[in-house]
Amino acid sequence: MSDVEVRRRRRGSGLSRLIGLLLVIWLIIGAVAAFQRDYFSNNNDSCAKIGTIIVTIIAGPLNYVGLNPKVHDCNVPQPST
Q1: Which of 17, 36, 57, 69 has the most beta carbons within 10 angstroms of its beta carbon?
Q2: For the chain, how are helix, strand and coil distributed in percent, rounded to 5?
Q3: Domain range holding 22?
């Protein structure tokens, strides 16, 4: 393997590490936003509440620029009998 190929592989792995780190930070910020809204404190575990927690975490930093995602209705398919 030549030196150029080694440098290309190192550069690519550094970029994927950076993207992975940014993704983890994004999700942590979303979890903090959900925690600040007290979504984890109530034991009312409905489908809509769990959906709201998930979309809040996925929205990440967008929560702090005015995005307030909520799931109002959730239809879970029932198993067939």
Answers
A1: 57
A2: 65, 0, 35
A3: 3-65
